[in-house]
Design brief:
Layout lengths: L2 H27 L1 H7 L4 H9 L18 H14 L1 H17 L4 H8 L6 E4 L3 E8 L2 E11 L7 E9 L5 E10 L4 E3 L13 E11 L3 E3 H5 L17 H10 L1 H18 L16 H33 L6 H29 L9 H12 L7 H12 L11
Parallel strand pairs: 1-4
Antiparallel strand pairs: 2-3, 3-7, 4-5, 5-8, 6-7
């Protein structure tokens, strides 16, 4: 990347960060309300949309910013610092942009012309059936955990690509307008409550061939877009998909740190001790230092993964298996270290942090919940990486 391009990218990133900081106080102020309502704040969502934060991963030629993963992560983390649910939905909507950018140009135009192209993507369904029909497929089933679905015009649903006899030839993502699908409110959870990650239902819905993307092709780096110079859409599909749900975790931990630090500034005592100000306690000071170091460690591993993915995409190559495995391990490490930081911060805040009126408990719940997403599973990442290091050809995860 040239110096001029790097400077322009840095300026663009800083512009978006300033926009996030502008809306940040409102996100914090209404975080409790959006959790109760089970959806994003309308004013905040409109602000993010109008200021291009839901098009960070859309191609520049279609009005987006087409940001590399490293710069994108900075912005998603800043949103998460103020409201984890808002950052999660923003990431998943951008994930829909990213997948859309892999289709051929005419299909991208078709998707973007309806509902501004905002899409939620769900890889796995339940009770699904897929039938080949003339010019496409007829699908039925239920796709749960559809984060971003309340703000999306399209759903990208994982399907089996079958022939007329029902033989599975491939797996794919089928893009379908949300108004052709059913919707069940099934998101009854203790974290990320405002993401509205409910269940999408299809009953004998027809999807044309052109709106189905080959997942196996994407995993191999084989995309349909004619614009081969758009490196972002060649980013390794499996690890980039995992990265997109890991990206908000650092910001969530930083937001929790902010809340605990602010509590110390209020000069509260430590009960049953000589400390009239908790901030004067060496144990508090050390826990805060350790938490900050763990968050920094998580950030280093997050950006180590992004830089490997970005570099390979810019070079026009798919990641080698060992590179994918290492990136997956890095991403799991982000989840592990941010959750460890959260535990130390809760030790500092004490039992008062669990009061329902205290934002600390909400930020903690969101982080703990997000850090247990299947794509962030640290132990699975260890398995993948250890086998890759030792040259053992034993598949552990499908999305790699």
């Amino acid at each position: 990347m040239s110096t001029t391009m790097a400077a322009s990218l840095s300026e663009t990133t800083e512009m978006f960060l300033e926009k996030v900081r502008e809306i940040g106080p409102l996100l914090r102020e209404r975080a409790s309300d959006v959790e109760k309502n089970g959806r994003l704040d309308e004013e905040a969502a409109l602000f993010l949309e109008r200021n291009g934060l839901w098009k960070l991963w859309r191609p520049r030629r279609t009005g987006g910013s087409e940001l590399p993963l490293h710069n994108y992560a900075q912005i998603i983390n800043e949103i998460a610092r103020y409201c984890p649910s808002t950052s999660w939905v923003t990431a998943l909507i951008n994930g829909g942009n990213w997948v859309t950018g892999m289709f051929e140009c005419s299909v991208q135009d078709k998707i973007n012309s309806y509902g501004d192209g905002y899409a939620c993507v769900v890889f796995a369904g339940a009770s699904t059936t897929f039938k080949k029909a003339e010019g496409g497929y007829i699908i039925s089933g239920r796709w749960s955990y559809a984060s971003g679905s309340q703000n999306a015009a399209w759903a990208g649903l994982g399907i089996d690509i079958v022939d007329e006899s029902g033989t599975v030839l491939d797996v794919g993502l089928a893009f379908i307008p949300m108004n052709e699908l059913g919707y069940d409110h099934t998101w009854h959870v203790t974290g990320l409550q405002a993401t509205g990650s409910n269940t999408i239902v299809a009953e004998n819905v027809f999807v044309p061939d052109e709106l189905v993307l080959s997942m196996n092709g994407a995993l191999k780096g084989e995309i349909e877009s004619e614009f081969k110079d758009e490196a972002l859409y060649r980013s390794s599909f499996g690890v980039t998909s995992s990265f997109n749900v890991v990206a908000p975790l650092v910001g969530m931990a930083e937001g929790l740190f902010d809340y605990v630090r602010a509590g110390l500034d209020r000069n509260r005592p430590i009960s049953y001790t000589v400390y009239e100000r908790a901030i004067d306690s060496p144990s508090v000071q050390l826990n805060m230092a350790d938490a900050a170091q763990l968050i920094d460690t998580a950030k280093l591993h997050l950006y180590q993964a992004t830089d490997v993915i970005d570099t390979a995409a810019a070079e026009g190559r798919n990641l080698e298996f060992l590179e994918k495995a290492k990136a997956r391990m890095d991403l799991g490490y982000v989840a592990k270290r941010t959750r460890e930081a959260a535990e130390l911060l809760l030790n500092v805040s004490g039992a008062s942090g669990f009061a329902t009126s205290n934002p600390i408990q909400r930020q903690w719940r969101d982080l703990e919940f997000a850090g247990r997403h299947g794509a962030t599973n640290y132990d699975v990442g260890r398995e993948i990486y250890s086998k890759a290091l030792l040259g053992l050809d034993e598949p552990v995860a499908s999305l790699l």
